[in-house]
Design brief:
This protein is of the alpha/beta class. The protein contains 11 helices and 8 strands. It starts with a strand and ends with a helix.
Length: 261
Amino acid sequence: MKYGIRDGCLRQPWEQVFAAAGRIGFDGVELDIGANYRDTPWWTPAGRDQIRRWAAESGCVLASVCLGAYWKLSPADPNPAVRDEALEVTAQSLRFCREMGVAGILAPVTPGPNTDMEAGTARWIEFLKRCRPVLEETGVTLALENVGRGYGGTAAQLLHLIEAAGAPHLGVYYDPGNGASLKQDPAAEIRQIGHQHMAFMHAKDPGGEHLGEGTLDWAAVVAAIRAIGYNGWQTLETSATNDPPAAAARNLAFLRRQFGD
């Protein structure tokens, strides 16, 4: 298993978060590419060179990027111009990931304003079909997350989006904590997604400040992960608390105990 942490969990700017994560013992960092993506190092060649240096100096790789920009630029938005911009940031980010050796992107399945389930699902499927050429070009995985406020709150809905789109290099970025919060059975959903579609995973524990203190049935989740043979990234999406490094170290130790490595 590989262990990552989202940048927000450490409350550090990008130029410091890799070093902070490396000191704690993480293998990688997940950067959130928000609506101001054009103003970040991610969007320029010089900026991506900086990210490479920060990662190399820390020994902590860029594990994945999250297209948080989707919360303002949803692929389900009724406005075609918004959907077109979402496609642009997705296509460019897929190319940047290939350039930087990053295996995949977290794609939160976000809602469109005043968009019901049927219309939103249809727009997401259309969007994923439009992503096909750049997915084929790059070979980078676009992994759909069960964020719950859109059209992919269950494993079945995520798999429907993937299968209906019919594009290569689509996968699931499953968050068992979100599954529990959405009143699903995370262990059953992990088995439903299976090895074929499970690309990345988040680690959080709803109702607890640290992992192991909330409502998630970790024994069942770990057993399901082992049953499908998943051995990829477990990336913390946990509370920073009043002491982010201490909380991150504690949560990392918890994950290592669960998975035995």
